[in-house]
Amino acid sequence: MVFAPLSANISCHSISDQLKTRFSSGLSLPQICENFVKAAYDPRISGIYLHIEPLRCGWGKVDEIRRHIVDFKKSGKFVVGYMPVCGEKEYYLACACGELYAPPSAYVALFGLTVQQTFLRGVLEKVGVEPEIQRIGKYKSAGDQLARKSMSNEVREMLATLLDNIYGNWLDIISSTHGKKREEIEEFINSGVYQVSRLKEQGWITDLLYDDEVMTMLKERVGQKDKKSLCMVDYSKYSRVSKRTLGLQGGGEQIAIIRASGSITRTRSPLSAPSSGIIAEQLIEKIRTVRESEKYKAVILRIDSPGGDALASDLMWREIRLLANSKPVVASMSDVAASGGYYMAMAAPVIVAEKLTLTGSIGVVTGKFCLQKLYQKIDFNKEILSKGRYAELNAADQRPLRPDEAELFEKSAQNAYALFRDKAAMSRSMSVDQMETVAQGRVWSGQDAFSRGLVDSVGGLSQALAIAKQKANIPKDKKVQLVEVSKPSPTLPEILSGIGGSLLGVDRAVKGVLQDMSSLSGVQARMDGILFENLGDMSGENQLFLLIKNIVNHFD
């Protein structure tokens, strides 16, 4: 039997760090990794046929999957990769396979990596919208998209460093895989690689074959030559195979895994999808349940979040600290744990990050829009009656802030930043001055964060588990039972949205626009969502851009 854990429609979905129900769309990182582990021990499985389509996830998740491919090969079973579309991220994952094939017509674009940032200030001015943004931290890029017309020197420095980290790591891994010098790999990429035949000539892929030809080859390899079709089980079906049936469930001591993925909000809004983002009130309830239970000997807090509401982040920080007082807690970072995501992680005594996890971003941003000129253009009038000197601070969008209001607005943001920075310093056992040198809203790669004391170890979930066992005084070789506290159950809205998505196309984007725009007020501990790629839904600023675009079209 051959197992294909990643279905060919991966390009249609992002890879989530959360567990999925059978009715959920998209792929689940924990289920992908679990399938690799099960397949290694399952005597019915001869090998893995891995279809790799364009990957919609960050480098942290790619490293986690790549690690599981390497570990699976130690079982002696084969891993055959098939890659019809080849970019840097896809090849980074695919080259871990024992054999790699591509169709003769494969799309190839190995040109290097880029980072880009877009700016809406000019567009906003055109329609009469004046953003009034307070971002604290010279590297804090969140808010720049609205407030600036070009990249600041500080943000340019930060992004260039991150790009160097990612590209340098890519060159190191590829050169190591092929046994070549880094300079040779870079020279090949700089020649502009768009022909799949060149990959075969250079030994980057095994051969050029269509999918059916690879399947015929595999039939012969596993002794199914005379059968009409290859006996396979796909990712979705194999995800329903219990680890218990393979003797992999573990026993004895229990370690809880609490997963926190997406943007952070304090409470669920009427527009929230059943599993949208990190809702603080719900996560706090789970944390308290784990804290009060004596059956869990340690906790792994798995974080994949660019941040969000600062108050919500602080409330969760408090609960995680209380949890850490009762049992060992290890934070494990996925693609991103920045700003509010890092706020949560720093409450844990031990933090583990992937080498390319985007983390840090210790800073805050808040803002409002002055719509005075827009209102004049469309002949709209708004009048406010108020009592109290600053009563109109957040209500008056028909005029700019008065000087005293602007001063208070800035002081409020500075206060929020100081609270974040000082708690980060206390949590990481640094002085405030030491923390200030690595804060200022700067985003670090996991490797750089490790060298600066923001994280304690570089690795994935298995590394976090090893540390959790050590802290809980559980012998290294003793099996434990991992309990997914955040394990979802299918809800009627989720089932209906899954069916509706197949028939009509999802209405998730529309809901996202309304939901994110409704959360623009208040202090945000958020990392800009435009670094390298969007790691989740469109950020509020990008969704606002769609609205502004419609307004511009109207006036044109």
UniProtKB/TrEMBL annotation:
SUPFAM superfamilies per UniProt: ClpP/crotonase
A Gene Ontology BP annotation from the UniProt entry: proteolysis
GO CC list: membrane
InterPro entries per record: ClpP/crotonase-like_dom_sf, Pept_S49_pIV, Pept_S49_SppA, Peptidase_S49, S49_SppA_67K_type_N, S49_SppA_C
GO molecular function: serine-type peptidase activity
Organism this protein belongs to: Urochloa decumbens
UniProt entry tagged with the keyword Protein transport: no
Family of this protein: Belongs to the peptidase S49 family.
Ligase listed as a keyword: no
Name the record gives this protein: Peptidase S49 domain-containing protein
UniProt keyword list: Hydrolase, Membrane, Protease, Serine protease
PANTHER family reported in the protein's UniProt record: PEPTIDASE S49 DOMAIN-CONTAINING PROTEIN, PROTEASE 4
Pfam families for this protein: Peptidase_S49
Location relative to the cell: Membrane
Active-site positions on this chain: 140, 339
Residue intervals of the Peptidase S49 domain: 72-223, 323-474
